[in-house]
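Lab channel / #folding
Pinned by the channel admin:
"Please post every new chain as: sequence first, then the structure tokens as a reply. Keep commentary short and put observations after the output so the thread stays searchable."

First post following the new format, from NK:
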Amino acid sequence: MFALRAVQSLLGPLSLSLQTEQAPAAGRATQLSCNAMLMDVAAMGVYPAFGALADRGVNAAFLLGGVCCGIALVLYGRFFRWKNNSAGPGWEGA
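Reply from TO:
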């Protein structure tokens, strides 16, 4: 548990700095606020499910974690493809 918290402590600021760099200056605060809100909404749905599954067995909770990570990976891939296709000519990448 300590190792997971340590990794989260290291990756949290890195993730926030990447998000800050990619957000346009005009709407940066709004975009970061919406991202935080979406993360909290997702946590409200997933954390109780993790708790209920962990009461039954850790394997089921890990399986749910893997499924959630897989869904996030697919959504990220679709967003990245959409962003590349809609950027038009001259897009240098984020």
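NK: The chain has a mean pLDDT of 83.
TO: also worth noting, The radius of gyration is 17 Å.
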